[in-house]
Amino acid sequence: MTRIAFIGLGNMGLPMAANLLKAGHAVTGYDLVPAALDAHRAAGGAVADSPRAAAAGADIIITMLPAGAHVRAVLAGPDGLIAARAGTGALLIDSSTIDVETARALAAEAAAAGLDMLDAPVSGGVGGATAGTLTFMVGGSAAGLKRAHPVLAAMGRSIVHAGGPGAGQSAKVCNNMILAVSMLAVSEGFVLADKLGLAREKMFEIVAASTGQCWSLTGYCPVPGPVPAAPSNRDYAAGFAAALMLKDLKLGQDAAAATGAPTPLGAHATALYQRIADAGLAGKDFSVAFPFLAARTRAELVEG
Ligand code: NAD
Question: How far apart are the first and last CA of the chain?
């Protein structure tokens, strides 16, 4: 049994913490939202009234927060958990998707305080978090990963050491750029198929067995029907919110600008998800790209 502090019990954090409890670990949770704490308590976890209280005595501290600023707010500076746990040997694992620069800066701050820190963002969505089948892409030391492995294995199926600090976030930002582009491509395919009078179920059956096949189609279909567990069947309730996809695309474009990587489709996907957010759909699942596109004219999106 490992004593774990879990900070950030949202769409992802709550089911991840539940799997740690199922594996027999002692998990003390903290979130700003009281309902999240209630849900963690109902799953058998302990709750705390501050990040510091949650982290006191923990062997491993996991953060699952929206963005880099939130992770910095919890971990960095004189009031952060790195200072609070300096020299105790606690291992920090940040599974949020954040910018590479912040991940590296926090790992350095932790190292200066005698603590090991891993960036360990995930792929697999809320379904993977619930089923315990997430993919972890891990940046940091091999020794830190060895220590983290049994805990990560309670939440995920695939654990890949990407490299040193920030390498996990580098992998994540590339994966999500690919995901956004593929979701938009599948959505556009269905919009065109509709206009051509092709039945949606036939379109799905054929592309699923053809070279256009991808996870956005067969794992998370943006039109209702073919994939029953997909958010498209629940009025696009997130899931993975379009706002978070836009955040990740911006991280990707920042990284592309910093390194000079040519990513024209990534740039276009960022602009489209910005329009989706501006249309009031930021809180919907990112597969809302399909109804967003379907409700607009070619003049608005292509020729305008
Ligand atoms: P979420 O918004 O549902 O959850 C984030 C939680 O953090 C919220 O409950 C919020 O109250 C809490 N929080 C914010 N600031 C806090 C603070 N200072 N202290 C304590 N709690 C705080 O987001 P999510 O969907 O769970 O995603 C979390 C991270 O995982 C994001 O970085 C996201 O990009 C990434 N991610 C999400 C998915 C997905 O499918 N949802 C998939 C892969 C990665």
Answer: 59
